[in-house]
């Protein structure tokens, strides 16, 4: 069976909004048309994707899986179409994926000063699948934090950063200057592996509402600073390593030049 990308795009919009009306408005189509397209999509796939109620829709188990897969499929197709257009127009483009809190702007500026004819762009790397933009073709290079799946990748270490304990500002430990791992014994720690699909915004919202404490890279909490959260250094917590990553078989001169420039820029940044 061929996958209908238009219907997949419609489904992803409904899954994001959990509402047919808002999804239809985003897609600039009538709500009845969207409903018929989703019904047809379910029939083509021979499985239910949504549970419809009078106020909103929820995803079935199959729908959740397709939503996860579908976002990557649509991103890959979009990147492929852009590359085709770039070739047709004679455009050279370098796309860099970056993990939350890591800043690659200085490296891009330095690269552009030496390669003004090359278009540059960035894409976010989600914390639970940092390597995905490299593998699906959305980016040629990533500025990432370990750990991630390094199979088939070549990495260049850039530096380390500390992890800090992020907690509600009213937490009894929040008045301390620093902590050790022993200070966190008995505290409820957010179990990241069980919340793979949680965004960082959701993670910090859970922390602020008292659901637990999380060890987070310092650069991340600086980007998500809010008055109802506190973060303290944990003196004996292992640091997080930052690195540049590319597919091992990619050896283009453009990539080699960026890696050289980015390594020098980011290690001193």
UniProtKB/TrEMBL annotation:
InterPro entries per record: LysR_HTH_N, LysR_subst-bd, WH-like_DNA-bd_sf, WH_DNA-bd_sf
UniProt feature coiled coil, ranges: none
Domain HTH lysR-type stretches: 3-60
A single cellular component GO annotation: protein-DNA complex
Pfam families reported for this sequence: HTH_1, LysR_substrate
Database matches in CDD domains: PBP2_LTTR_aromatics_like (cd08414)
Gene3D superfamilies, alphabetized: Periplasmic binding protein-like II, Winged helix-like DNA-binding domain superfamily/Winged helix DNA-binding domain
Keywords: DNA-binding, Transcription, Transcription regulation
GO MF annotations in UniProt: DNA binding; DNA-binding transcription factor activity
Assigned protein family: Belongs to the LysR transcriptional regulatory family.
Name under which the protein is recorded: Putative HTH-type transcriptional regulator YnfL
């Amino acid at each position: 069976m061929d996958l209908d990308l238009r219907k997949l795009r419609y489904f992803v919009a409904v899954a994001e909004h959990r509402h047919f009306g808002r999804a239809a408005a985003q897609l600039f189509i009538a709500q009845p048309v969207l409903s018929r397209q989703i019904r047809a999509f379910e029939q083509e796939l021979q499985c239910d994707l949504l549970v419809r109620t009078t106020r909103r829709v929820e995803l079935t188990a199959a729908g959740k899986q397709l939503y996860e897969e579908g976002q990557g499929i649509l991103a890959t197709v979009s990147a492929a179409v852009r590359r085709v257009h770039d070739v047709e127009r004679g455009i050279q483009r370098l796309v860099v994926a970056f993990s939350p809190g890591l800043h690659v702007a200085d490296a891009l500026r330095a690269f552009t000063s030496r390669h003004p004819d090359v278009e540059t762009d960035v894409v976010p790397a989600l914390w639970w699948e940092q390597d995905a933009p490299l593998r699906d073709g959305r980016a040629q290079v990533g500025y990432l934090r370990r750990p991630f799946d390094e199979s088939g990748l070549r990495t260049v270490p850039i530096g380390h950063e500390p992890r800090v304990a992020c907690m509600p500002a009213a937490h009894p430990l929040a008045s301390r200057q620093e902590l050790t791992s022993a200070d966190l014994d008995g505290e409820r720690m957010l179990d990241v592996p069980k919340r793979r699909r949680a965004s960082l915004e959701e993670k910090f919202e859970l922390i602020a509402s008292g659901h637990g404490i999380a060890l987070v890279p310092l650069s991340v909490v600086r980007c998500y600073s809010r008055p109802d959260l506190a973060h303290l250094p944990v003196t004996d917590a292992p640091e997080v390593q930052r690195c540049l990553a590319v597919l091992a078989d990619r050896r283009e001169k453009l990539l080699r030049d960026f890696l050289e420039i980015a390594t020098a820029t980011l290690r001193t940044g």
